[in-house]
Structure formats: C-alpha cells, structure tokens
Amino acid sequence: MPAYLRFAPNGAPDAVVEAFSNSLGHSSVRLVPALYTVLVVPSLPGSVPRRIANWSSASAFLVVDAGTPITGTVCDAATLPIRDAQVQLTIDGVPSTLATTAADGTFLLRA
Q1: Each residue of 9-48: pLDDT tens digit?
Q2: What is the 3-state secondary structure (H, E, C) of 6-61?
Q3: What is the overall mean pLDDT for the chain?
Q4: 21: which strand partners?
C-alpha cells in the first residue's frame, strides 16, 4: 500500500531517513546496516500508522498488519456513557485512527 516511511536508527534517532512507498507497497531506500525504529503512515482510508521497533536494515521486507483492535467506553464523571465522543490515538506524534463513540459510549479502533 502507498505510505510515508520514516526510518530512525536506534543509536541516532535524529538521523532520520524518509521515503514513500508506491501503490504496491514498494520503496527503494539505502540505509546503513543497523536496527531502526520505523514509522509507517499508510495513505489508504481505514489504515492506521504503525511503529515498528528494532527493524533490521538487513531484512528485505517490512511487513505491516492491520493493527490491534482497541475497545473501550467513554464515560462522564458520573460514569454515564458519552455518545458521539471522538477518540484518537497518536503514534510518534502522528494522529492515528479516529473513532466516535456509540450511544452506549463504546468505541472500536485499531492501533
């Protein structure tokens, strides 16, 4: 899938290499052999950013799954459910999925 990619070497997190993958998910990046923290921000609706720690540049592939489902309930101070509240996650400062609570205050999103 098309995505923004950010590779940060574990020993030098400010030495970031950025790239974009095409519609097939292919990207060409030259990296120093090391372990990296990789941020993947897909550009397809319904996809969520992923942070992958300790990825080795010696690996030929970077595999990203659909994410882990997260559920919960938003309540007010009196523990009554809040309808239509927006719940959003961030990963490395990048906004991730956004969910709106149902009438019973529950939500489901992927992280």
Answers
A1: 998 888 999 999 998 888 889 999 999 999 988 887 667 7
A2: EEEECCCCCCCEEEEECCCCCCCCCCCCCEEEEEEEECCCCCCCEEEEEEECCCCC
A3: 86
A4: 3
Long-range contacts of 100-104 (CB under 8 A, 24+ apart): 101/73, 101/74, 104/73
Q: Global pTM?
A: 0.66
- Domain segments of the chain as ranges: 3-56, 69-110
C-alpha dihedral, 90 to 17 to 3 to 98, nearest 10°: 10
Bridge-based pairing of strands 86-91 and 69-73 is unpaired
**55 pairs with which residues across the strands?**
36
